[in-house]
């Protein structure tokens, strides 16, 4: 990064310091890995990339991310404009991508009113119902485990946001969501399209040579609109008929100050509610799916960890209903699993609203700030030379078992001297994911239920040999493993019955 007192200095070789050259050098895949390599090469946790269209600041340490995005959140809480995603596809009203201001505060307020960290009543019943169906589906057709995960995760959000209950894996709502998430995973990365760098290109007609992105944008706009608008209008119509099921959209509509009386039209306030409900769906479903896929891969690759976790669960829920145990205990042991592979390796970028200085470095107004969560969670200075390895106990301390009532207290707790890996994955400052508590609670119960009821092992080939596993991930907005197969079988009749 350029120092204010030395504007010509740069962490790049001189021949590579022009904005156009650095734009060409910007990685289009595995950005989090390349940025981490650059940070190590230049021995700096702050990188300043002068790219065409602006400045990009990559933060690769917890200290830098907290100093800027949390302690100086008053100026580091906005979002850079992603022209393709927001202007052309229609994500401009999404809470995640809204710039910091009154509109963002209004959207955020709706979620905070409905999903307080201390109150899980808005989602816990839906989660328990979907989880039970998920476990039964795994018993009947374990080879379709991925489809079952997708159904469970998306059905929870659909029920919470719209009161829609999905019972089959090929439900139209699920199919529509898959298409929408594919769009977001492609267009959600800043700079993925040339129009992100040169916003004026959005004005060229669709028939113009090279304007294929405009035609794709229209197709993707329709996909998103068809995913979030019909279920919301259905809630509004059901409310008018007096037979709407309790859900986030219904409660917000009931409190609306200026609704449009027409069932197929939305006032400005209702549009905000629709976008906020859509943000819940877009932000919560696929991250949960990705986390569970990583968990299954880890359990196959590290069977000793799986066995020890199962033994711990068998002791802790002895003599009580497992569902009650999950409600009562935070199960910190399983939280550390998501540290291994950050679900969102590059946190959604922030934007600084005014020029700033940090440790003698000059940060231009309007710079895009990218926290490299993947690098932060693998910082060798914090987690040691084996930070890249999967080892949940790195963050845990073992305590003596204490019997209270029918259930034993959990024998593991987070090490207070080791930085909690969970909080980092949900963002920084004022842009921390508002669904953090719901997402974490759901992930913990899903992981605990899977471990308690099933053995997760690699599949066998035609000769009965274990299929070799490779830990390989696909680059994108989300950090998910490449497609893989696994065997999920009940541990025993007793472990299935306890659900």
Automatic annotation (TrEMBL):
Keyword hit for Glycoprotein: no
Highest rank taxon of the organism: Eukaryota
Keyword Ribonucleoprotein: no
Keywords associated with the record: Heme, Iron, Metal-binding, Monooxygenase, Oxidoreductase
Biased composition annotated in UniProt, kind: Polar residues: 1-21
InterPro entries tied to this protein: Cyt_P450, Cyt_P450_CS, Cyt_P450_E_grp-I, Cyt_P450_sf, Cytochrome_P450_fung
A Pfam family assignment: p450
CDD domains xrefs: CYP64-like (cd11065)
Binding site for heme: 433
Necessary cofactors: heme
UniProt-recorded Gene Ontology molecular function terms: heme binding; iron ion binding; monooxygenase activity; oxidoreductase activity, acting on paired donors, with incorporation or reduction of molecular oxygen
Region feature (Disordered): 1-23
Associated pathway: Secondary metabolite biosynthesis
Sequence similarity: Belongs to the cytochrome P450 family.
Identification of the protein by name: Cytochrome P450
